[in-house]
Amino acid sequence: MKTNLLNLIDNEFPFQRVHSVLSVAPFVRFLKEKINNGGSGVRVQQLRYVIDRIMAFPGWDQEIPLDQVEAYRELFELIYITLAAPIVDENEDLWALSVPFNPQLFFGTNALYAFLENGMGGIKKGVMPAVDLEEKRKMRLANIYSLALQKLYGFSFAPVQNEMIHHIRDEHTGLNKYYRLEVDTRFLDVSYEDVLPEINFENIRLSEDSKFGALEILQRFLPLDRFRFDGFAIIGIKDITAQYVLEHIKDVIVNLAPGQMIYADITSSLKELMGNNLLDIELTPVIKLNGKLVTNCFDGLNENMQQVCSRYNMSMNAYVETIQRYSADPQIIFRKNVSEVVDGEDDFYPVLREIGVEGLAVLPIFFQKQLVGMLTVYSREKNVLNENMLSALEPAIPLLEQLLQTSIDDYNITLDNTVKEKFTSLQPAVEWRFNEVAFDYLQQRKMDPRAEVAQVYFSDVNPLYGAIDIRNSTLERNNALRLDMQRQLEILISTLDQLRDHRDMGLTSEMIFKSRKWLEQIRDFISSDDEFQLNLYFEEEIMPFLGHFRLTHPRTASIIDHYFTAIAPGGVAHNNRKALEDSLQMLNRTIGNLLEQMNVEIQGTYPCYFEKFRSDGIEYDIYIGQSITPDKEFHPLYLKNLRLWQLNSMAIIARLTHNLQAELPRKLETTQLIFVHANTIDISFRNDEHRFDVEGAYNIRYEMIKKRIDKVLIKDSNERLTQPGKIAMVYFQPKDVEEYISHIHYLQDQHILTDEIEFLELEELQGVNGLKAIRVSVVIPENAADNGRTLDEEQEHAVSLSRK
Description:
- The structure is a single chain.
- The protein is of the alpha+beta class.
- α1 (25-36) runs antiparallel to α2.
- The longest helix has 31 residues, at 575-605.
């Protein structure tokens, strides 16, 4: 034991001294009360012995000056042996006595003084809770007033403080260790210099709802400088690393969000639990896709695995293959000494030796008897990994089971939702009906194994159709192909000219002649037959010739390789087609994303079925009606609102695609088309194609018209109905578009559409006559294409417009 003054508070702590007196008198009174409350036997005899020894000490009931604590050492040792268990080793027990509310230690165990003085970080060196100085001050005041109210008024005032848990970074391991600071104030007397004022404790309770609200009231009625504290406090410090780490892992699991990157955090906590930073720990969930293990489903997991593989210079593929084999036959593996060869060991052990692994442990983790993951521990140092470290992991295994199973469940749900969202027609608006049909099927199959799934059918739904087409996409494709073919021929002619300089062959000159003839033939136009014949010429004549020439004349390799590089995917002979495809993809992706975001808005108004199709542009079908959403009353106002959304969204798309011209590798324009169908139709789900289709002869006519109006001409002209910067609406009867005309007037007033409205008659189509159309122009602000916004910013701007 040591008797030595030691200040626990650093210079920055906002320390406000209180009138504290070091005394053992409260302790003696406590022991007397313990005896008087009953009891007999050895324990009571021991307490009487301690009391007699203390009271025999001169001045035992007086204030003990701090500069004379060494003279009272015997008293303090009596206190320690009374309070500590007999078998406690003072070289391990972190225990001390301190001055009341003036945190100065004056007597304690060797272990505690060593802990605070030997560079372990210590409370005095910065492991106080991570709060600002003002909060530290308030926390201390709250603890003082908590004791004072309890002693003087019998009122329990909850001390306002962070949990007294402190972390210390172990200099030897580099890991955090966690300690709980416990303060025992049973042996303190509290007195007040003046008459105790009356206090409305109801106000105190109400003020406790705010973090430090009650302190302001208490300091006014009970000033701190009027208190006197006699006695001493007992300080205890306990290592709670294992408990703290397990609680942390539990908190991570409880608050786990799908896809959250937590595996690095968990493995770091497991290192703290094992108490060794020389280990590499890998926690791997067993997630299988189509029967094969996948490891790159979580960013944090994959990154952690890559770090381990990188450190050991290990192939990621080899590691994954080993996990795959292990998951087929999981068992506990523990090898302290990997360098020692064991009969029947896995082929992976030579790899481990080669990369420097000295110790290895693999623990399979099961959830309800199913393998959900594995915990792998590596060591590059000899004699580091041992049984005690693995035993330290045992309390964490149940938590890891739950974590891994939760991760697997979350991933499977995410995967299932993605499949439903991106690849099937099953949407939330209609999923309820599929669930009912599936349930009925399962019930019927119990009685009749030959039962078939019923058809999913919705009657009397209102259809809305829209199409955003890429203007002259076929011509653009042909032109891009023609320019690339010309470029390939020009490079080929240059290549052949250079080869002729090395070796003049008649065949080389003939190929130059053919290539120039082809270049002239496709200068203005290339047909499908031209494309076929030209590719045949490249493959059957040019490729064999150049291959043979390169083999027989190695010095020409660089010349010929230049041609092969140019015609390879991504080469300059594909530049125009690539620019066109990139532009098409950029436009379609932008339009598709915009429609998806707008769809979220309309679903919030009234659930409906929304499906889009992609070709050179984007087409979409919307179905809305009572049969789709039977639990919510359908009103024509929902259809009216949806038609306004359709018209407004087409205007926004026209403006957006115009403004994106500067971003596109190849300038492309879009046209916007709406087919107005005033009557309801019936739709059913086609199981063979996994999509909805119209039902009945009359309804099929609706589908037929949709497919034929995309390139319709204005009657008695060669002008296409659909034009860039305009919205065309095709209909049969004037009454069908009365509602749209009202919406047009509204959007004109909002300066979204121009004032002019064109009423047009259309040419007769096969099986369809009497079609009419309305065409309106979209207001495109000047310099809109050069507004400085990126593509993503332009899209976000468009979405914001749709909400106005």
